[in-house]
Design goal:
The structure holds 2 protein chains of 2 kinds. Chain A is α+β, with helices and mostly antiparallel strands. Chain A is about 50% helix and about 15% strand. In chain A, the strands form 2 sheets. In chain A, strands 1, 2, 3, 4, 5, 6, 7, 8, 9, 10, 11 and 12 form a 12-stranded mixed β-sheet that branches. Chain A has a 6-stranded mixed barrel with strand order 15-16-21-18-20-19. In chain A, strand 15 and strand 16 form a beta hairpin. Chain B is mainly alpha-helical. Helices cover about 50% and strands about 5% of the residues of chain B. A 3-stranded antiparallel β-sheet of chain B has the order 1-3-2. In chain B, helix 1 crosses helix 2 and helix 1 crosses helix 4. The N terminus of chain B is likely disordered. Classes of the chains: A alpha+beta, B mainly alpha. Chains A and B meet through helix 2 of A and helix 2 and helix 3 of B.
Chain lengths: ~900, ~130
Amino acid sequence: MTPRPRDALLLDRLSVAVRRAFVFVLPARLRRESAPEMEAAFQAMLAEARDRAGLRGVLVVTARECWDLTRAGAALHRERGGASAGDLGRSLVRSLRTLLRTPGFTAVAAGTVAVGMGGAAAMFALVDGVLLRPLPYEEPDRLAHAFLTNPELGWDRGPVSGPNFDDWRRRTTPFESLAAYQMGVQKTLVAEGEPRRLVGTAVSGELLPTLGVAPLHGRTIRPSDEGPGREPVVVLSHDLWVGSFGGDAGVVGRRVSLDDERYTVVGVMPPDFLPLYGPSTFWVPFPFDVATLDRDQSFLTVLGRLRPGVTTTEATASMEALVRDIERTYPEGNEGRSARVETRAAVVTGGVRTQLLLFLGAVGLLLVISWANLAGLLLTRGVARRREMAVRRALGGSRGRIAGQRLGESLVLALMGLVLALPLAWGILEAVRALGPAELPRLQAVGMSRGVGVFTAGVAVLSALGFGLAPALRASGGDLVTPLKEGGGRSRSGGYASRFQRGLVVLQVALTVALLSGAGLLADSLVRLAAVDTGFQPEGVLTFRVEPPSAAYASAEEQDAFYRGLLASLRVVPGADAVGASWALPLGANFGSSRYRVEGRPDDEEHLLQLVPIRGDWFEAMGIPIREGRRFRASDDAAEPPPVIVSGALARAIWPGQSPVGERLRKGSGDEAALFEVVGVVDDLTMAGLDEEPGLLSFWPHSAVPWARDLYVVIRTDGDPLALVPGARTAVRRVDSRVPLAEVSTMAGRIDGELAAPRFRTALVAGFSGAAVLLALLGLYGVTSFVVAGRTHEIGVKMALGAPARRVRWAILGWGAALALPGIVLGLLLALVGARWVQGLLFRTSSGDAGVYAAVAVVALLATLAACWVPARRASSVDPSEALRAD
Amino acid sequence: MSDDVRAPDTLPLTPLSHAILLALADRDRHGYGIIKEVERQSGGTVAPGTGTLYAALRRMQGEGLLADSDREPGPDEDQRRRYYRITARGRDAARAETLRLARLVAVAREKALVTPAEAASQEPSS
């Protein structure tokens, strides 16, 4: 996977920056003499690694280089008679002892590091597993999808029809081999006991060979398996093989019954074979009978292996030419089409890329916040130990040694953090795996790999520098006299936070506000998405899918009779108020579409209608009101012309400002034309997805649409819809015991499923923001307490002179607010700039939403006051005589 | 360090120093060029990072085994690069070390630890 140039540039710069931090491990002389040419050499290594192995190569080379610098630096210091490895160990043990003398401080500090590092480790594992690791196919870089596009209709990844695909693979294309598949093919397996409804994939013969994954047993499906009249064969997934056939290798060659048809098992795929999309438990050849397939019925996804050296841009250009050529031969159903080729990796990760980068960005902010927080803590502690440091230096301790020892303490803290961070990361990953939406590909393969461990260890070392460098330099510098003169007691000069300390607080507040703003925008968008008017009443609706076995119900009449009996049987289930069935469900996104003309208008005016065949009391069961005209009725089956009901959006699109009832639609032209009469209009319905506009929907009596074999049953009830399942199961069995209930769920549950992805990312970013807020609060509290503690004497004097407690309190709160305000402003600016990144993830929320930013600012200000409240209280309750006597 | 402190008879060279001298034996190279050549010579098994390499380069310069080359980076090259050349002393040291290794290889062959074919299979591909 070659990263895009902009990413590459950013990543290179990041790698160079990280490496620069490690250069400081080298002795000053080598650094002075050779740093620039060393960096030049590193950049050349980096460029080569990127060309050879992409993002992963860059990461590996950077990690190896940082390790090499550390090792070389340690060796050189040792040679120069500095610390030996033994010395280093001893000094680390000494640091550990120092830290353990203040267990409270150490626990808070290690916990702080762990929060940032744990989050970073978990997100790295996620990004590595989903984005960086190559797809588990042979030469995955050359696998690419070819899509049909229709710029006019806004399709950019459209499916391809059987005849069109057949033309593609017969011609010369930029692909070495070209394959097609249809996802979500359902078949009933009758093995032992209950019939099982399975979801599988129908594939063209080239698909499995194109992917280049060898089967575990037997063979895969071949080109010779497809076409009419061939013996039906099936390849099993590893799960199905173990689950239903006991993992018996002798299954190859056996015949199994799928939908009452006999299939010969020819192979079993290995356990780590990654189905192309969603679950797939079996693969069968797609029945490629070009004669019976419609050129405008597009439902195939096309995947191929590009010829070596061909780029997707070149491939797109030649596929566009091919599509135009086919359009000239078969204009019907191919108008306005173009093509587009995208790599498989881009398709798999494209949708989640922004989201994962958002997580990585959020966790990066959290990491920096934790560093700033800890640096503040260490500085405060450093002030308390100023006298100790001054005594050491007065006794001849070199600045380098003192700084080194303080850095050692930071390193020990970071290592303690590492020990806590790894289980934390594991926990976060477990939660992500449990809650993560299905749209995150390869989620189950994500885990705490060795790579994640190495990365986290690297982050730990970097963290030690990140939060430890400034306090270490400060501890070793400064004048010697003041701390020694002041004595060991309370230090008077500790009452003022240094500019650097205040800067750290501003930084923390700013980054926290930025993170909080991101979470706010996502939450606002989630609320809007959940509040979308779907056009139907989802509460109290049970849904499941049935498919009558094709062998038993071959003719349209038999199929019709089956569904009549089924609905009649379901109507008498206790609790069922209204029963209907349809070929597609709202939010299912799986429905057909076709072009129609309007009677009485010119032939060149065509409209693409989405088709929803329905049956029974579907509108009542779904709770969709009829706005105009009427519902379907029993006599409609024989009505001439056949009736159709349209959605409000369709009515507005074709008959703006007038009633469509009584108008007629036309399919075809001339004598062959079939007419359909609009008899009713229903409210707008969100069919494709919550974030989609209401579609141009047309509803048809199912009896008039025999190709829609399998239907979703919907049952409305007053009580809990799931309580109806046993009754419904019995009712279905009464009609035909071979038909199982598939995809049993409630309509409310389906909506909930739609919200899973946005809810997941909102929860994750909100979780990081929550942690950030806690850290920032802690930081602010720490600095304020420190200032108050140092000024006890001054406050005591003021109060002795008659300053009221209230004024003292307000002064401290004001001091805290003055510190937080620049942070808040800076954070809001940061958020405004960064929010453009997340715009793509937002639904009807602008990335510049003033309400969200105002709310964040108020929350941040309140949190600031809360953090300063305790120290302010403490300050105002100072007993003047106590404070003065302590001096 | 002056020349008489470390004479070429301070054998053996470290494997990395030897590899660097070999890399410079046929032409002057810059740091990245040395890394690539050392990697090629070792059949991809040794690839020093910049820290290890420059620590060795500076030490070897101090020992007089190599020196700055007169060659300057070309106009389309990274201007931060510096070229290194092997000195006469470096050449002597590399030769001596190579002969020492050759002697050891001969001993190993004599004792049938490696076969001539095995030894030949280690010859680098260009």
